[in-house]
Amino acid sequence: MAYNFTPFKDKLKGAEEWLKKEFSGLRTGRATPALLDGVKVEAYGSLMPISQVASIVGEDARSLRVAPWDTTQIKALEKSLIVASLGASIVVDDKGLRVIFPELTTERRQILLKTCGQRLEEAKVSVRVEREKVWTTIQKDEKDGKINEDERFRLKNEMQKYVDETNKHLDEFFAKKEAEIMS
Prior knowledge:
Layout: H1 6-24, E1 40-43, E2 46-49, E3 54-60, E4 63-68, H2 74-83, E5 89-93, E6 96-100, H3 106-143, H4 149-182
Antiparallel strand pairs: 1-2, 3-4, 4-6, 5-6
Helix pairs in contact: 1-3, 1-4, 3-4
């Protein structure tokens, strides 16, 4: 009987995508619109992602221009950016807002690196949890007589190959982000 690893591989791919998204939200030397992805704005009676209320473009390496579709939302945008505590200064003008990020200090870089390490560990924990679920299923199948002992070891090795490959990708993402932060 061939074990279906497709759901397991999808979960592993999900962990990789989650880590990429988390890393994209961490500011390094350059201000990007992705830094504001987590900001929610109180608009039209509900909380909305900032990208649904305004356009966000990079003006230069350290600042972003937030131009609301509806200029009556400028105050709500300003309030949500302040509440998000991004460590940036916000300047309001007639066209919208400028979000200006300060230069990264060595201390701030160390904090970002620590945060990246925590995110990496969270991703690896989710991989281990998924591995444990699959391993439990494989052991149960052997106990129920659906597979023999040799098949169990073959499936375990195949499962571990997927886990090792995913962990390698996660470590590569971390190394890339670390180099980006420290440069």
